[in-house]
Write a structure and sequence with these properties.
Layout: E1 7-17, E2 25-30, E3 52-55, H1 56-63, E4 71-75, H2 83-95, E5 99-103, H3 108-114, H4 117-124, E6 128-131, E7 152-155, H5 156-162
Parallel strand pairs: 2-4, 4-5, 5-6
Antiparallel strand pairs: 1-2, 1-3, 6-7
Helix pairs in contact: 2-4
The structure holds iron/sulfur cluster.
Length: 183
């Protein structure tokens, strides 16, 4: 499918957020989530038929990306059940020098076992990945950018290099991915 025809089922968009990752970020909440975590705050995103279907270009337009933003966050719902749409948005963000952060209910290890070329391409463009389901028994409101202690903020580029998850050092900056390869 041509990129301009690609659409995403989305639950919502926030053009500017300071709670969905480092810096000021535009956030896309994907619609549809197979994880069904007890205690989930976004249960309205579970139904894959809910929300609305928008062309990727329209999602990007509604994000109103501007130079004050650090990047985009793909949240949900579960962004990785619509990997082509997530990849298309990541490409747009990288075009304007924005970094990409993804929230997923899958663990890094589960994602690695998917062997998905689209997701592999998406990860090459992703700076940070918050992985794993929300576990209510591990809930901790004091954690930055995540809801439960089992969830990790993973430095994706370092992890791809080491082929195992490397936790993000919050004061160590953000490796955007592809920045040095002239994408
Ligand atoms: S992965 Fe996120 S959106 Fe999906 S059920 Fe769990 S907490 Fe809710």
């Amino acid at each position: 499918m041509a990129a301009e025809e690609l659409s995403i089922q989305i639950a919502g968009i926030i053009p500017e957020s300071i709670v969905d990752g480092p810096g000021l970020r535009a956030v896309v909440f994907f619609q549809g989530c197979p994880h069904r975590c007890p205690g989930c705050h976004n249960q309205e995103t579970w139904d894959p038929q809910g929300g609305q279907r928008l062309l990727v270009d329209e999602v990007w337009r509604r994000l109103r990306y501007n130079p004050l933003l650090s990047g985009i966050t793909l949240s949900g719902g579960e962004p990785l059940v619509q990997p082509e749409g997530a990849l298309a948005l990541a490409r747009k963000a990288r075009t304007v020098q924005g970094n990409v952060m993804i929230y997923t209910g899958y663990t890094w290890e589960e994602i690695s076992r998917m062997n998905s070329p689209v997701i592999a391409e998406l990860l090459k463009m992703t700076a940070l990945l918050v992985d794993g389901p929300f576990l209510i028994g591990e809930k901790d409101d004091a954690l930055p950018f995540r809801g439960s202690r089992n969830q990790r903020i993973i430095d994706v580029q370092a992890s791809l290099g080491k082929q195992s998850p490397v936790l993000w050092a919050q004061n160590g900056g953000i490796n955007h991915g592809l920045a040095t390869t002239g994408e």
